[in-house]
Design brief:
The protein has 14 helices and two strands; from the N terminus they run βαααααααααααααβα. It is mainly α and 359 residues long. It is globular, with a radius of gyration of 22 Å.
Length: 359
């Protein structure tokens, strides 16, 4: 019979190879899925893995989706390393969009182009406030941050709908639930004329470098990591669990809010009920596929963006269901969990008689 035994030591090579193996298994399962649906699997895989990279315009669209995913995943990685489970980044993303949208609506036709800076700061503040609610309830009443952060996603979505259907609705918008179009001064500058790639790419790369330094080269980052791995050792060393809670959640909320600001100051240019697109939930997978490391998150966010774009192309060109993107995301997460389980345990064949004797 097969028996699972804990590994005494995990190979670094296996730890790096696990996400690649998970991706390969995801592709294999995708081939079976496309075949079962009666579609050409090679054409479907081409839409998912080649079309999003084939030219400059495709890469530009890829960056529009990868940047918010990377920003949110950077903040979530800090939380998860500290053993704080912020599952409600989607709500913080929405509040960031609301904060940035409110600031953007204060701009006029003569506003300076530098007004985009307070727009982004408004997004950061909005996300931090929403994450601060989670931190406050956990700190004062010991509530479960998983449930609180998740439930606040629905509150944030309802608040968005109330505003765009009510006080913030564009009076000249033909009764559509949307705000006015934001002034040009509030929009993120584009890097290439004619393409939607914007300065958010540069800001995201700078954020990756900053989080790498924070996590691995600062006292506060070290304290958060130790608190997540060994809480008892962290208390013995004098690291404050309360400080870790607030630091991790505010950082995570701020990054999610910044991603929401990028969304409304970039491709959208206004607030609509369709601001929440699931980036906050997809970024959880991005963080774990990237091994909670800032550099790994860059590559995993690009991969997840390919899933988004490939799903849209498969829907329009092959008639496949819209839910296919979520299916791919879920399969990738489960295969990664399976590979991670293989990192921690190994299977050994034990004779039945020996197993009974050991029992």
């Amino acid at each position: 019979m097969l028996k699972l035994e804990p590994r005494t030591q995990t190979s670094m090579l296996l730890a790096v190879a696990a996400p690649l193996l998970a991706l390969a298994l995801t592709v294999a399962i995708g081939v079976l899925l496309f075949t079962a649906l009666g579609k050409d699997p090679l054409q479907a895989l081409r839409l998912f893995f080649i079309e999003p990279l084939k030219n400059g315009r495709a890469l530009s669209e890829l960056s529009v989706k990868a940047v918010p995913l990377a920003l949110i995943a950077l903040g979530l990685a800090v939380c998860f390393r500290a053993n704080i489970w912020n599952i409600g980044a989607e709500g913080q993303f929405v509040l960031g969009a609301l904060g940035a949208g409110w600031v953007a609506m204060q701009a006029g036709p003569d506003t300076s182009a530098w007004f985009v800076v307070p727009v982004l700061l408004g997004g950061v503040v909005g996300g931090m406030l929403w994450a601060g609610v989670v931190a406050l309830l956990r700190d004062r009443f010991n509530t479960n941050e998983i449930l609180v952060s998740l439930m606040l996603v629905y509150v944030a979505t309802l608040l968005l709908n109330y505003l765009v259907y009510g006080p913030w609705k564009d009076p000249d918008g033909y009764n559509f639930p949307q705000t006015v179009l934001f002034a040009a001064s509030t929009r993120l500058p584009r890097l290439v004329n004619g393409l939607r790639m914007n300065v958010g790419v540069v800001i995201a790369l700078l954020a990756v470098a900053a989080f790498a330094v924070f996590q691995f080269r600062t006292y506060r980052g070290y304290a958060l990591t130790v608190g997540g791995i060994a809480p008892a050792a962290a208390r013995y060393a004098g690291f404050s669990s309360r400080s870790a809670l607030w630091t991790a959640l505010l950082l995570s909320g701020g990054m999610a809010g910044l991603a929401g600001a990028f969304e409304v100051a970039g491709p959208l240019g206004q607030l609509t009920p369709y601001v929440p697109v699931g980036y906050g939930f997809a970024a959880i997978i991005v963080a774990f596929v990237g091994r909670l490391h800032p550099v790994g998150i860059v590559f995993s966010s690009v991969l997840m963006s390919m899933f988004y774009i490939g799903g849209e192309l498969a829907q329009s060109r092959m008639g496949l269901p819209k839910a296919l993107t979520s299916v791919f995301q879920g399969v990738l997460l489960f295969t990664l969990l399976a590979c991670d389980h293989g990192l921690q345990y190994r299977m050994r064949w034990v004779a039945a008689a020996k197993a009974r004797a050991a029992a």
